[in-house]
Amino acid sequence: MKGEYCIGGASFLSAVAVLLLIFVHVGQINTSSVSYGISMAALNVSGYGNALFQAFQDPIQGLYTDNASLPLGQGLGLRQEYKFGLYSYCAYVTGSAGSCSNHTVASRFEPYNAVTADMLLNYSQYSNYIFVGTTFKNSSYLGYNSHVAYYFLLLGTLFAFFSLLTGVLRRTFLFFISAALAILSTIFVLIGAAIWTSLIKKAESINTLQIASGVLDGMSMSYGTGIYLSWAAFACLAASIVPYMISCCTYRG
Q: pTM higher than 0.90, yes or no?
């Protein structure tokens, strides 16, 4: 395969990977249509109130709010769905109608803290008892590891961008640098995506948690599109390594 073709293929794969990773980073920074559709994890809590009623046979009042503009974390009521990104999380009453938390670099994935902060005190006390001992409630574990995973994804994104940039310049010695950066980017994105995947898989244990005999907790944790975008970016970066390395040996620019 000629070096020119390898350069084009590697540059295309790197460009796609960079674009995918950019989308990962913009997930849940606001409630716009693009950002709304991208998250690392999604938590649906719409059935929690009914589960509490079935378990305790007491009227459930004031657990939810239907006001999408209310601030988060003030005990003003649960929303129907919570979505978590790399810089913030957003909560939605219906569709994309919702609000977001403050933006923070390397935002910690702490779904239990997010939902209980929106509950009245009595419901958060119920929740402390219901979710004791679960990974979902272990905010220090989830928060720390998601914090670390962010930096792997950030460095992977930067390395991917510089790999693309040096490859476009079309110099033989720069292709060595592009290949090295592509390898580093692949490794960092792999680690970041793997950590996030593992965290969500463990948090998914609440999907089958029973709060009383035959009564599920009514919450559902799932992977967000950001996870799939991260793995797709990893695949593109891994595929770009070989053509970059071939270019080192065959390009005669």
A: yes
